[in-house]
Structures are given as structure tokens and as C-alpha cells.
Amino acid sequence: MQSVFPIGLPWPTLMYLFLYIVTLIIHVVFMNYVLAGTWYLVSMSLFERRKPDQTPSLVAGTLREWLPFMLSAAITAGIAPLLFVQILYKRNFYTANLLAFHRWMAILPVLIAAFYLLYIWKAKRVQAWPRYFTFPLGLLTFAGFAFIAWSWTENHLLSINAGAWAEHYAAGNWMYKSREVLPRLAVWFAGSFPTLALVLGWQLWYLQRDVPDHETVGRHRMSMLALAGLVTSAVAAALYAVAIPPEVREAITGYMGWPYVFLAGSGWGVQFASWLQVRRSARLEKIWLATASVGLLMTLTGAAMIREIIRWFRMDEKVLFPLHKQAAEVGGLSIFLLFFVVNAALCVYCVLRVRRGLRRES
Amino acid sequence: MDFPYYPINDFGPAMKGLVIGSLGIFHVFLAQFAIGGGMLMCYFQWLSQTGRCAPARQFVDGFFRFLVLVSFIMGAVTGVGMWFTSIQISPRTIGMMVDEFHWIWAVEWTFFCLEIVAGYCFYRYGTRLDDSARMTLLVLYAVAAWGSLFWINGILSWQLTPGIWLETHTIQDGFFNPSFWPSLLYRTLVSMAIAALVACVVINVMPGLDRPTRSVLINHAAHFLLPMVFMPVLGVWYLMSWPEDSRAWVTGGSPAMSMFLAIGVGSSLLVGAYATIGIWWGKLYINGATATLLCALAMAATAGGEFVREGARKPYTVREVLYSNSILPSEVARLRQSGSVTNDPFPLQNAADYPTQQLQLGAKVFRFQCSICHTMQGVNGLVELTGHWSDDQRRLMIAQLQHTKPFMPPFSGSAVELESLVQLIGWETAGRPEGATEASLDPEILERIQTWLDEAGTAQGSRNPQK
């Protein structure tokens, strides 16, 4: 491919790629919230000073309350990209799943356990426990999500390295060792904090929107979380760039990927500037949250596209195109679009109905 | 030849079908509980807001928390787990299903999203909302949950009865296949019954309810068990929509499948009889232990039914399209010529365990063609099934497999590969004796095998060879 990715690809491939990227970004937002949110709560359970009445801070309380739903949303939102990745990269995805069998299947019980631990963590009785109980509980929950993140990373890297498959299988390895694993994992982990800060920032803004002349609770902490995450993810991205093969790096910074590097970088800059503004102002201002949202969307889109460029560069695209064309020939797209619109509208209706009901109650 | 080889994992003495079956039964039970649970909540909300049952509202709030904790977590994760497990068992099957029905799956995903949003709205705010808002959320939740059944049912029933899709290849023909409606209606009744039985357990463990209140709630929940009286009719309709040979396996042709059908039918009958005569008619009180026992019976019925549904597809995973060992019928002839594992890029994981090249080849053939349904020594083990046969018997039986055992696909390899498999089974049966030497391939034996393979042909066998 000698043009900007994905220009020049056949339309079936473009369509599935578009759907994959869009749904992946939605999934990533929820996933980041859970990963960074759990880590934040673990840290707070160790360092934060408790109030005499044991009630959690607004930030910690909101997080605890919303984490189980966010995990549910992450799992549900993850179904769509899981579907489209099977169409786009079937053979690679399935092979990596099979090669990483033990680890891959282990994520299911781990996910169930971590899910229940989130509910336990949320219980008021548990929140009043001493630190030496809540900290290990939190750490165990975070370890579950970290294990899943690590497994996904290895699985992804294994899926794009067909040359390693036969040897990996013959050796019966449980782990895929690659110099890309840790920096890639670090990019994702560090990058999850700006997402958490933004979504939680919006939640805190909403909860305190009617409080006049008041310094918004959580403003300073959200901006610090976001700025720290942005700086760390930039460092991790630089390390990852060093870890990938030079020809892949050239493709990203060259003809295939420069617009996405620019997009992700610009988004990073917009987010950084927005969070600096949040830090300077007394409140969580809507305008800076909005600009940070735009920046995050730019960064996530750019990063998702770069992720695909790295993958495409290592795959034989000629094998994939006929499979995508064949898949696109089956019917059902119009039914999907119809129900997508109807059910999205019903989801919005549910939220509005609850808001109306709560207003009536108050 | 462009055959999609995958690195096949060995599950030791556990048959792969058992692995996916165990998770599948668990997931189906949870999913059907969630579907029926949504409807049951709507019914109890209606009872509450129309003044027909005062404690119904308290029950709805208590039961919904249980529903969320069980179905939103276990149901959702095991659902994803089904996908992962399917990939482990037969990537080609799940790949074909995704190719044909990805838009249907995408539609189902939109229903999942609605289910989660409506469910969590109720879970978090339901106690603070008025009756109208509560009912709206519950109805949307129930519709979304049942909708997910509607869509997935089309895909699963297509595997067994693709019907005229085999000619037209249109999505509507595949989706609304011959067993779609009976399967959908049957599963809907099962969902209602499971939800009612779980409700009986929950009512018994809910704090703050006295005995008369529990009794009233249980009797209302039992209304959801009554539609079970239609199950025999629907069951027969469902069975009649199956292909003749599949029906024959479960009605006596295969003792194991007939036994599982009997477990399914028997358990359903026991639950149905107790519900109708005992709970509904006799207004019996049902305590927690009995309710749990009835749930266990419902689980047994689910297990029996799912096993039968999976087994009835044999020798296919998608009827007349893909054999259970992930080989297309159109590929058999080519693989007989080229050899089925000649181009397999994945070496054996434990090649050193096999002292000769012939045994190694046999192990690769076993891995590729047999290991999806058989183990070497374990559940459905080849040593147990064929160990007492002579070499010649094995050669003949395997060469003409689709005729000697019509629920088996045809052997899809060369004569050399077949002989290697026969030698491997013999070596394993003998307890892996040391000192095995490279066997010279007797041309006469190979010729005989080839003759048997040619006689058998590459097409699927039939119970009635005249057909």
C-alpha cells in the first residue's frame, strides 16, 4: 500500500474496518474507565485519609458506584469489535486464540471473579473495613483486569506474527515473549487515565452542576490524573515505537500513517491544554471538558488507526480482500442499521424516562 | 491447496464436545433465566400496580438485584466465553457462522445494549420511580432479552436445519429455517419455566417475608410454569422439523442420544407435573429445598435438550455444509488425493513421544480429522472404540466410515494416512510399546485400502443406502 491507510482498499474491507474502529473506540472508553478506575481506587484505599464517618470521597464514591456498570458496558460494547475482528482477520485472530489457549480461556473465570469483587467493593459494609482488608481486595480486582489486559496484548501481538506460530505451537508455550509486549501494554495502561479523568470529570461536573460559587470537588485530582496519564502514555508510545521493527515504524510515520500520527498527537495536545486549563480554573468547566473530549476522540481514533496500520503492514492483504468481499455479499446490513437506530433511540429513551421520573420524585 | 489449518489443542482425556457442552448448558440456562426473568418481572409489576398482589413490588426489587448479579455477570461473560470456546473447538464452524450471520449477530448486539441500559436503569433507580416508569423499563428489558433469543435462535437452528438456504443462500431463508419457530416457542416456554423456578428459590431466601406472603408470591410465580403444558406439542413439532436421520438418532438410533432425550423429556415432565398439579392446582407451598431441586431438574432438562440438539447435527456442524471435523464435503476428494495433513504447517507438540514417522503421521491425522470428537484414550476414545478390532477391520471400517457409521463423516485422507492412523491406534492399544520400528508400507495393503476408499466414495453415507 503506497497511500494513506486505508485509501485504496476495497469497499467491503473499508466498511468492516470502519465498523471495527468505531465500535472498538466505544469499547475502549469503558474499558479504560474500569482499568484506570480500579487502579485509582486501589491507590486511594492505601493513601487517602478517611473521613471520621467513613463515607467515601465524592470521587471514590462515584467510582465505586459506577465501576460495575462500566464493566458491564465494556463487556457488551466489546461484543461488536469482537464480531468485526473475526470478519476482518479471521485466521489470525482464531490462530492466536488457539495458540494462547490456557491464558485466553483463563480470562473468563478471572473476569467473573473481578466483576463480583467490584460489587463486593461497592458494598457499604466493605467500605468501612480497615485498609489491610480493602487494599488486598482492590489489588486482587485490579490484578484480574491487568491479567486480562496482558492476555489481550499478547494475543494481539501473536496474531500479527504468523512467522512465530508454528514454533510457538510446537513448544507448547503458555506465554508469547516479545519486546513489544511491555511497551504496548504501558501505552494502553497509561492512556486509560486521561479517559478515566474525562468520563469521571463529566460525572463530577453533572453531580455538582447546581452548586454555585464552589470549587468543584475532584477538579484538581482529575486534571492531575489526566496530565500524568498523557505524559506517561507519550513516553510509553515512544518506547513502543522503538520496540517495533523499523519498517513498521517507517510505515507509521511515512506514507501510510502520518495523518494518524498527526491526529493522535494533535488530540494529545488538545487534551493537555484542556486539562491545564481545568487545573488553573476553580471549577470543572464544561468548555474544557468538551475540548478534552474532542482531544480524546482524536487521540483514540489516531491510535486505533495506527494500531491497524501496524497489523496490516504485517499481513498479506491479498488473502483478506476476497474473504471480506464474500462476507459483504450476505444480506442483513439494512436490518442491522434499522435496529441500531431503534435500539439506540430506546436506550436514550430509558435514560430520559429515568431523569423525568427522578425529577418528579424530587 | 488453500486449506485453513489451525493449531489444534489437545484436551487430554476430555472430549472437546464435553468442554463446550458444559459451558453451553450453563450459559443457556443462565440466558434463558434472564429472558424469562424479564417477562416475570413485567408480570409481577403488573400485579403490583393493579393491586392484585401487594407484596409483588417488593419481590420485583429483590428479584431484579438477583437477576442482575447472576445474569448480567455470569450470563454476559459466559456468552463471550461461548464464542471463545467455539473458537477452541472448531474455528472453521464459528467462522462460517460469523460470515453468514454477522449482521444478525450485530442486531443481537443492539438488543444486548438495550438490555443492559434498561436493566441498569431499573437496577439503580427502579425503587425511586413511579409504576409507569418502572413498567416501561421492565418491558424494554424483557423485549430486549427475548429479542436476543429471537436472533440467536435463527443462527443456532440454521446449523441443524438450513432448509432451502442450501439452494438460495439468502439470509432470510437461513434465518427462518424449518426449526426456527418451534425452537423459538419451545425456548420461550423453557425460559418462563426456569424464571418461575428460580423465583421460587429467591422468594424463599428473601428477607422480611412471612410464610403467607411467600405462599402468595409462589402461587403467582407458578403461573409462569403453566405454559409448560404446551411443551409436548411444541417438542414434537420441533422434532418433526428435523431431518429424518437426525430424528432417527435421538429416537433410538443412538442409545446415548436417546438417553439424553429421555433425561430432557423426563425432567421436563416431572417439573411440569409438579408445577401444574402441585403448585397451581393444589396451591402447595414450595420451600427453598424443593425449589432448588426443581431448578436442578430444569438444569438436567436443559442439559439433555442441548446435548440432543448438538448431537443431532452429526456428522455435520452445519448440516450438509461443514462436517464436524471442520472439512467441507467438497474438500474430501481433494484431501484424499493430496493427503489431509501434507500441508499442515503445525508440527506435533510431542513428536518425540512417537518413535516412528508413520506413528507421527498417524498422530497428525488423528489430530486433524478425529480429535474434535474423539480422544485417543479417554471420553469417546479410539482405543476403547476400536482397540479390539484387527488391523484389517480398522482399515475397512475407517475407509468406509460414512457407511459403517452414518453419523461419521467420510475419511478425508490418503491411503497412506489411513494406514498410519490404523498403526497409531494399534500402538496406543498395545500400551505404546518401546522399540517400535519404522514400518514398511505394504503396497498390497495400501491398494486394498484405496479400493475400499474408492468403493465408499467421498459423499456422505445414508442410513438407507437405497436413497
Give the arrangement of secondary structure elements:
The complex is a heterodimer of chains A (362) and B (467).
Chain A: H1 11-47, H2 58-88, H3 90-99, H4 101-122, H5 124-127, H6 131-159, H7 165-171, H8 181-207, H9 219-243, H10 246-253, H11 258-280, H12 286-313, H13 317-328, H14 333-361
Chain B: H1 16-49, H2 56-89, H3 91-125, H4 131-160, H5 165-168, H6 171-175, H7 180-205, H8 211-221, H9 231-240, H10 244-253, H11 255-281, H12 288-311, E1 316-318, E2 322-323, H13 332-338, H14 357-370, H15 382-386, H16 391-399, H17 401-404, H18 415-429, H19 443-456
Antiparallel strand pairs in B: 1-2
Helix pairs in contact in B: 1-2, 1-4, 1-7, 1-12, 2-3, 3-4, 4-7, 7-8, 7-9, 7-12, 10-11, 11-12, 14-18, 16-18, 18-19
Keywords (chain B): Heme, Iron, Membrane, Metal-binding, Transmembrane, Transmembrane helix
GO molecular function (chain B): electron transfer activity; heme binding; metal ion binding
Transmembrane segments (chain B): 20-43, 63-83, 103-123, 135-156, 184-205, 217-239, 259-277, 284-305
Fill in the keyword field for this structure.
heterodimer, A: 362 residues, mainly alpha, B: 467 residues, Formate dehydrogenase/DMSO reductase fold, 2 domains, 19 helices, 68% helix, elongated, electron transfer activity (chain B)
Gist?
The complex is a heterodimer of chains A (362) and B (467). Chain A has helices spanning 11-47, 58-88, 90-99, 101-122, 124-127, 131-159, 165-171, 181-207, 219-243, 246-253, 258-280, 286-313, 317-328, 333-361.
